[in-house]
Task: structure prediction
Amino acid sequence: LVDEGKLTNEHYQNILAEAQKVNLDPVTLLEKKRIVTEEEVALAKSKVYNVPVAELYGVKIDRKVLELIPKETAENYQIVAFKKESGTLHVAIINPGNFKAREAGNFVGRENSLEVAFYIAPISAIKNLLAQYTGLAMEVEEAVGAAESRFAPTAAEGEPSMSLEEISKSAPITKLVGSILKYAVDNSASDIHIEPMGEKTRVRYRIDGVLRETASLPGHLHSAIISRIKVMASLKLDETRIPQDGRIRVTVSKRRVDMRVSIFPLLNKEKAVMRVLDPERRVFELKDLGFWGRGNEAIQRNMARPHGMILITGPTGCGKSTTLYAVLKQLSQPGVNIITLEDPVEYFLPGVNQSQVRPEIGYSFASGLRSVVRQDPDIIMVGEIRDKETADLATHAALTGHIVLSTLHTNDAFGAVPRLVDMGIEKFLIASSVNLIVAQRLVRTICSYCKTAIEISDEVEKTIETALKNTETNIDKYRDKKTGRLIFYRGKECSRCNNEGYSGRTGIFEALEITDNMQNIINGDLKLDDVKAEFKRQKMKEMVVDGYIKALEGITTIEEVLRAARE
Result:
């Protein structure tokens, strides 16, 4: 990788030193850090070991071939049998240098009188193949089959003979719910929806911000599934008239995951929604989240100030918490005392004192803030400003020598000011305590494997040209040299992105600094024209303009930007 210019010598030395420190194979550490792509690592291994690379994304393996290597062996050695032809078993492997893994593959070959041909595959390809051992559809089919005869209501009785508590603890229902949770974690879903739909129960997952139906179950199992979730979340089984909230902590795919559970009564059944909280997910750097240019400079400048408030605004699910964690990660130093008040704790940050508020026992953001200021903090993170008392305490903490980070639900950056005024905070306090307001939305990123150039309608193109006219962006560099039209991009849909055309998400942002001019506007009449003039003076890009530029750069599509702008 170094010889081919894919990895710098500095990265190489750092990886070797860190691998020795954490007692991990250097290549494994390199892959975890994603300094180079999986494909580049696979090609490098191919050259070193003289083993070909297999293109396995979207491949559906014959069940008989897949099960030639037992599931436990495949997961332990990260090898998968994917094809059998002409007396040869084709086996995908992550690390051809793992001789125990190769011996396991050769043993399976000898047992079945087959020659074994090894192929290298990237980590995510192997992960997708391993998922075929226990895909949700298969798990659901097995669990439903086992549950049908035991729990289906008979014509005479109309109800199952077992109690809901007994049913919820039975093996088929336990396995079924476990499969639903595992699929969510393995596919990086943020939410799980389990809801009645006539004679069926629909299971949907929110992945990359989009809700997708993944499974349909027999309706008579619905109450048993909801009861199982209630048992896991320590909720009341016999209470079906009012909403209930709880938490589940499970170990899935060798990771400890928390799930925030909400049970909601409908006309005749209940709906369950679970928010997946994976504290072991990596905390990103600000540049990884989509911060760049003047917006990034503004946030870096204000993070370096000794006190004051930084607010991140936007609707639910727009990545506000992720941005706060990225800021905290950068601010975390041995000489800094950071305390957070969160509901819930979504990621674990080494070196940061994280506290979970519990309003049901009187431990709210407001009461927590009173105690936090007595803990000699340098930086305080408040998960969300929800009421006047919290806003008041956070404002005064920012004025008395602390850096305060928090979030608000507003549509744009300046919207945070009237929102705080509505909460009863004096204008002069807002002007004096707030340093920076960042508004954000999330947009899906185009799949890099099926990205293709397109042209858009004249009307939309003119709108974008007008929006970028008075910015520092050189729009001409994005034009087709022959036609003069702006070039945009879209995913054609392929197996690597599950035929979505998108893979992953990034943020679009606007950042408003509270300068002396801005303080005068806040203390005055809060006129929108004055705010826009100050925005231009700061040369800050509005959120939608940031999105247009990212669409021109081929990061996202113009449809995603317009969708996010409507939010």
Observations:
- The two ends are 43 Å apart (CA to CA).
- The first strand starts at residue 79 and ends at 85.
